[in-house]
Amino acid sequence: MTATEQPASFKLIGIILALVSSACIGASFILKKRGILLAQARAKEQGKDTAAGEGHHYLKNRTWWLGMILLAVGEGSNFAAYSFAPAILVTPLGAMSVVVTTILASYFLDERLNMTGKIGCMQCILGAGIVVLNAPATNSTQTVREFWGFVGYPSFIVYLVVLLASVLWLTFWAGPRWGSKNPLVYIGVCSLTGSILVLSVQGFGSAIVYTAVGPTDANRADWVNQLTLPDFWALGAAVVVLALTMVHFLNKAINLFNTAVVTPVYYVCFTTATIVSSLILFRGAGANQTTTIASIISTVLGFLTIVGGVALL
């Protein structure tokens, strides 16, 4: 199974969409947390107080719903970004959402942003710049059958089995015991399911772009409308299930722990899991030859710079 190269302009489109996504998602964290706090305060006044992480009083709060709308816009932009640029480029740019969240939290949630935090924000921006300048400029697949071809490799199937076992253990064993005490439990579920969601979104979105562009001189002989294939809709169903699972556990983590803790830990875990999943899926099956060792090393160093910045926030 070989990768299919896309126009270089797609990389710029992907970067812009990723940055818009980060801004919306970063702001959504603040609005959702604010909505949860307001809903808990109102429930307490009405004598309906529940333990942290329990109950769904926030579903009646407008601020929380505004946060969900922004999150939907951000995820939509993120979805589109993965359709135009590779996961190894788009995912690290999620650090910008950490910067947005950290800055806004200091204004709207009374969470202090000290000098160390400001340095962390600058470091995240620097690392993001390194990633943008050095990340590969091509997608790995354009059609759903190319995508499922990569998924069918034994190395990735083994990885999926291990990942599923880890998610089940975190959900049904670790969750009831340590979920309310350790943020890594529910963030771990979000990160692992999210990493597969990213790959699914990339395959699904790229297929939509492939269909929208239509047949070209290079592929006219074997061009197929992806929306007519059962494989396309099966991948779409997987995207929906994974997205709902990820949002559910992310809400639990936000409800239980401070935003300043959840956001950076979630970013590091999610990005690491996504990069690992992407490398296992595509690198194990044969990387695109335009990807050089230097660009990979530079991208990894950029990511580590971002991680260092996130750690300071």
UniProtKB/TrEMBL annotation:
<protein>
    <submittedName>
        <fullName>DUF803-domain-containing protein</fullName>
    </submittedName>
</protein>
<dbReference type="GO" id="GO:0015095">
    <property type="term" value="F:magnesium ion transmembrane transporter activity"/>
</dbReference>
<feature type="transmembrane region" description="Helical">
    <location>
        <begin position="232"/>
        <end position="250"/>
    </location>
</feature>
<dbReference type="InterPro" id="IPR037185">
    <property type="entry name" value="EmrE-like"/>
</dbReference>
<dbReference type="Pfam" id="PF05653">
    <property type="entry name" value="Mg_trans_NIPA"/>
</dbReference>
<keyword id="KW-0812">Transmembrane</keyword>
<feature type="transmembrane region" description="Helical">
    <location>
        <begin position="184"/>
        <end position="212"/>
    </location>
</feature>
<feature type="transmembrane region" description="Helical">
    <location>
        <begin position="293"/>
        <end position="312"/>
    </location>
</feature>
<dbReference type="InterPro" id="IPR008521">
    <property type="entry name" value="Mg_trans_NIPA"/>
</dbReference>
<feature type="transmembrane region" description="Helical">
    <location>
        <begin position="150"/>
        <end position="172"/>
    </location>
</feature>
<dbReference type="GO" id="GO:0016020">
    <property type="term" value="C:membrane"/>
</dbReference>
<feature type="transmembrane region" description="Helical">
    <location>
        <begin position="121"/>
        <end position="138"/>
    </location>
</feature>
<feature type="transmembrane region" description="Helical">
    <location>
        <begin position="12"/>
        <end position="31"/>
    </location>
</feature>
<feature type="transmembrane region" description="Helical">
    <location>
        <begin position="257"/>
        <end position="281"/>
    </location>
</feature>
<feature type="transmembrane region" description="Helical">
    <location>
        <begin position="88"/>
        <end position="109"/>
    </location>
</feature>
<keyword id="KW-1133">Transmembrane helix</keyword>
<keyword id="KW-0472">Membrane</keyword>
